[in-house]
């Protein structure tokens, strides 16, 4: 377990650095991470049962982010990275990772919106999205 966590942290640091630099998370980071998770699960964590856990974790990682990806909120690299986290650590870990990242991301978005004095507009946009299905109205635009 500790080896998977260490590998996960290393992969996340590399992926974050690459994402900050280029705006993408490339396949040469995510795909080997998924493969490593599958192999580690077989070798270190119980053969077929470990592999099953790893596949389920990767699948859940994909499923959790497929809707935000379809809606254009995140990129494909983010989806594959969450699948890699699931493959390396299992379904329960990826579920908690998803929930914690959603909470932290929401707090960060609110803080940035507050800092830029746009929190009211952001809240309005969210309410518009949920009540009417319309996307945000930029300043100066009329609907």
For the structure shown, list the relevant keywords:
6 helices; mainly alpha; 143 residues
What does this protein structure show overall?
The protein is an all-alpha fold and 143 residues long. The protein is built from six helices and no strands. The chain is 81% helix and 0% strand. Helix 1 packs antiparallel against helix 2.
Q: What structural class do helix, strand and pairing data support?
A: mainly alpha
- What percent of residues adopt helix (DSSP H or I)? over 70%
Question: In whole angstroms, how far apart are the ends?
Answer: 53 Å
Succession of helices and strands: HHHHHH
Radius of gyration: 18 Å
Shape: elongated
What's the story with the biggest beta sheet?
A: none
How many DSSP-defined strands? 0
Number of helices: 6
If you average the pLDDT, what whole number results? 88
Content of β-strand:
under 5%
Q: Extract low-pLDDT stretches.
A: none
List the helices and strands and how they pair.
Elements: H1 2-22, H2 27-44, H3 47-70, H4 76-89, H5 91-115, H6 119-132
Helix pairs in contact: 1-2, 1-4, 2-3, 2-4, 3-4, 3-5, 4-5
């Amino acid at each position: 377990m500790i080896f998977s966590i260490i590998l996960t942290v290393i992969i996340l640091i590399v992926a974050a650095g690459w994402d900050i630099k280029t705006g993408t998370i490339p396949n040469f980071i995510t795909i080997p991470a998924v493969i490593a998770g599958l192999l580690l699960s077989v070798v270190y964590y119980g053969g077929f049962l470990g592999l099953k856990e790893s596949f389920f974790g990767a699948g859940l990682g994909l499923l959790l982010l497929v809707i935000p990806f379809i809606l254009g909120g995140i990129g494909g690299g983010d989806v594959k990275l969450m699948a890699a986290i699931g493959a390396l650590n299992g379904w329960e870990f990826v579920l908690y990772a998803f929930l914690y990242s959603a909470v932290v991301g929401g707090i960060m978005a609110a803080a940035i919106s507050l800092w830029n004095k746009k929190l009211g507009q952001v809240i309005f946009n969210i309410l518009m999205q949920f009540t009417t299905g319309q996307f945000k109205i930029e300043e100066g635009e009329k609907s």
